[in-house]
Amino acid sequence: MPLVTSKEMFAKAYDGGYAIGAFNVNNMEIIQGITEAAAELNAPLILQVSKGARAYANRTYLMKLVEAAVIETGLPICLHLDHGDSYDLCKACVDDGFTSVMIDQSSKPFEENIEVTKQVVAYAHDHGAVVEAELGTLSGIEDEISHAVGSYTRPEEVEEFVSRTGVDSLAIAIGTSHGAYKFKPEQCTRNADGVLVPPPLRFDILEEVSRRLPGFPIVLHGSSSVPQEFVKIINEHGGNMPNAVGVPEDQLRHAAKLSVCKINIDSDLRLAMTAGIRQYFDEHPEHFDPRQYLKPARANIKALVKHKIVDVLGCDGKA
Ligand code: G3H
Ligand code: 13P
Ligand code: ZN
Questions:
Q1: Do 117 and 168 meet the contact criterion of CB atoms below 8 Å apart?
Q2: Which of 279, 280, 265, 276 is nearest to 299 (CA)?
Q3: Predicted confidence band of residue 148 (pLDDT cuts 50, 70, 90)
Q4: Beta strand extents in the chain (DSSP E only)
Q5: pLDDT, tens only, 53-70
Q6: Rounded distance between C-alpha atoms, residue 280 and residue 293, angstroms
Q7: Residue 21, phi then psi, degrees to nearest 5
Q8: Which residues approach ligand 1 with their CB closer than 6 A?
Q9: What angle do CA 133, 139, 142 make, to 5 degrees?
Q10: Best residue for ligand 2 mutational test, from 221, 225, 247, 301 (most atoms within 8 Å of Cβ)
Q11: Quick check: pTM over 0.90?
């Protein structure tokens, strides 16, 4: 089966009350861990490549690794550009064979966001690809793509944005953010074990957006949950990640039952991989073969993605 767009995946997810996982990929082991998990659970899948990933691995390697995963698994896989920051980058990815692109002009004024998104939609649709755009900004500090201070999506803008751009899905800001430090300790309470409990997502905004855009697929970025078991392993084996905290999984599960059809996860993969490698090095200081320490890292990713598919996204058996 060739790469697919997310169109049919989202239609089925919307009606079925589940979401598709959009996992960021940067190298072979990450791609293998994710796709083996999805294949074993017969789950539809979005693999997404950021501008930074494309610069790190180079455009051809990631493309070919994803094509290899399609051959190996036979799964419907959508290859998506994450946080495209210009028309030219989106066009280049469509030309390379991506079936979906995100044009992220969320930090720009409304009219400018519409203008650039419209241009990307015209090109992508002409070439059989679909487009995600964003309204509202996520807070968080990570690379080039987020802002120190976020702003929630304004539901009163979504109908005009979608109808004027012709976009296929919309990312909204309801309190998630990128990275492993999504909430400051002072924004949280602590449970009996002293673990940070973040404030709830703004489901009122999500519900108002869905009321205004019935049947339209919504996307949540910044949806890692920062599993505390990985943070603990990292910290016990030489790492230093104090107060790392993510979005509780039960809230993502709830969002997936509503209009959220795509849930973006990157940081949890990074934590799974780093925990596996740190633990391995600590336990086997004499080893130096990358295959030895990347194997448990890849296994951690596979187990994490299986858990997300079954317990958070609810998309097992939906491919
Ligand atoms: O939302 C952003 C993703 O986590 C990608 O991050 O730009 O470091 O590849 P990156
Ligand atoms: P996390 O940092 O929460 O994994 O978010 C990833 C993301 O939104 C990619 O676009
Ligand atoms: Zn994102």
A1: no
A2: 276
A3: low
A4: 20-24, 45-50, 77-84, 100-103, 130-135, 169-172, 189-190, 196-197, 218-220, 260-265
A5: 999 999 899 999 999 999
A6: 6
A7: -80, 130
A8: 24, 50, 52-53, 82-83, 143, 145, 178, 221, 266
A9: 90
A10: 221
A11: yes
